[in-house]
Fold this protein.
Amino acid sequence: MNAATRPLLEIEDLKISFPTPTGLFHAVRGVSFSVGRERLGIVGESGSGKSLTGRAIMQLLPGNAHLSAKRLAFDGIDLLTASAKTLRSLRGARISLVMQDPKYSLNPVMTVGAQIAEAARIHGGVSKSEARLKALAMLEAVRIREPERVYQLYPHEVSGGMGQRIMIAMMLVPEPDLLIADEPTSALDVTVQLQVLSILDDLVRQRGMGLIFISHDLELVASFCDRVIVMYAGRMMEELPAHDLPAARHPYTRGLLNSLPRLGDQRAELATLTRDPAWLVEP
């Protein structure tokens, strides 16, 4: 397989566990998928292992985590055997991670512009003046008005929606090949959600990037992504094209879809999801 057709990311039989007083807790159980220059959605309930899967790609798991996989590779680089130096060169520069809440990701004692410019200097190898220009251009790219003024603000001086755009700008200023967005819109109201998704969509298409969009919102992922992976208790229940999600066949996915409220719904009560212990067993 040549570089043009090879997926950006390849994961085979990924497993993550944690020691507990009663034994190992298996948080991710044999996940396998690949990502090209496309928009892949990973959905599931809280605790399904979707965020841990994203962090495993970046090798940013807690120190007590046990990680194993038959293959975990980015652009042909084996992430399981890569040196610390190689991993540092990939993080931020070629693989970026947008966290869920910018309030916990931005440095409170640095202006937002300085933080974006720092990412450009560290990962892009540009001068201080060039980094400032790139930061201003990226603020404009994520549709922030008056970028010169916003550049000088501190994180506590911006709204949640603006903070999320600033985080996206910081992660995209080094021009990575793969962006992992971990519930980037969950703390935002609906109108701001749509604006942030539109920004991500434009930037991914213009730059030819790969995107892993992690969310618990099935309808949002179905409308935004190209493919969807549904996870439950650390396992993949189903993988299908996003436009086929309403016709999903797995009972877990069907249960999630049936539990969603809809305008004009005549049901007196929403369906309650019944979980089958067999879903945890190897197929």
